[in-house]
Amino acid sequence: MSVVRRWLLPTSGLLLLLWYLRAPSIDPIDDYHIAMGTMVRMTLYADPADATAIVEAGREAIATVEAMASHYDSSSELSHVNRLAGQGPVAVSSAMGELLRETWRRTQQSGGHFDPALGLLTSAWGFPEAVQPPEAQYVAQGREHSGYHLVEWNGETIRFLDPLVRLDLGAAAKGFAVDQAVRQLQQAGVAAGMIEAGGDIRFWGLKPDGKPWRFGVQHPRESERILVIDDIGLPALATSGDYEQFFEFEDRRFHHLLDPQTGYPARRAVSATVWSTSAAAADIMATAAFVGGPQIALQMAAADDSLEVLVFYEKDGRLQRVVSDGVRAHIQGDD
């Protein structure tokens, strides 16, 4: 028996690489800091004299969401909901309500391929510290007491129909935090910029050099291969992949993106990149596209003009990819 454990901060294994094509005289304000378990990068085009205040505004917005939606912090609002919603309806803050509305909307749009109520199941797997799969009985128990169908959410209060249900907003909160930071920075007068948090990207405005925003999507198994994609007209993108948090056990890779239907890691894709109108939507739908696989991802994009997808998957032992029409029209090269 061989066991290999591996987990990565998304910054060390990103499939999303921002390509900066700017004139040397254009110097944005760049800030890096750790938040929500990953590296956050803010690249802002603004008056350098305002740099300190602007950076602090962006950092504070992200920290506020982290304090609200962390399931590691027992004092967070999410932990409060998880403790009490099994006993009766729990009122939520306006910010949590906004996050839950977007989460439930996208859950329904994805047909349940993304599910925010898998907390007991994800606990059974124990990522990122896991070194081997849980026993089948614990997976079965996790599935029995998980699922958004066991949650009542009316826009103001939330209640669990099963007292063992737990919310896990990890696939939504990071993108939501990016959106909140962008909102705060726009209100502060930052006309253009980009925020990236562990592969969740949101950009806005026109760069002063007039050059377009361009992105490179790495091949999930060959890091030197880059697929260059121009701005497709949607301001946010995110990637979910089997390289983010995983361990190898008995020559098989087990990653943290669980299929709600089986309780085990989803096997239909290797990575999924989604473009959407917000980082939260891209974050959630990237998970859904990964879990659902290439055909489900294309169907979701075809049904929603504000959604585009790129999915790598394995077939007959070979890695292949599919792209939605909006992505195909903006691919510039595959190096």
What features would you describe in this structure?
The chain has 335 residues and is α+β, with helices and mostly antiparallel strands. It contains 9 helices and 18 strands. It has helices at 51-69, 77-84, 94-109, 119-125, 136-144, 170-187, 279-292, 294-302, 325-328, and strands at residues 3-7, 16-19, 29-35, 38-45, 90-91, 151-153, 157-160, 192-197, 200-204, 214-218, 226-230, 236-241, 245-249, 252-255, 271-276, 308-315, 318-323, 331-334. The strands form 4 sheets. It has an 8-stranded antiparallel beta sheet with strand order 3-4-8-9-12-15-16-17. Strand 8 (192-197) and strand 9 form a beta hairpin. The longest helix is centred in the first third of the chain and has 19 residues, at 51-69. The two termini are 38 Å apart.
Summary tags:
single chain, about 325 residues, alpha+beta, T-fold, eight-stranded antiparallel β-sheet, 9 helices, about 30% helix
Topology:
Elements: E1 3-7, E2 16-19, E3 29-35, E4 38-45, H1 51-69, H2 77-84, E5 90-91, H3 94-109, H4 119-125, H5 136-144, E6 151-153, E7 157-160, H6 170-187, E8 192-197, E9 200-204, E10 214-218, E11 226-230, E12 236-241, E13 245-249, E14 252-255, E15 271-276, H7 279-292, H8 294-302, E16 308-315, E17 318-323, H9 325-328, E18 331-334
Helix pairs in contact: 1-6, 3-7, 4-5, 6-7, 7-8
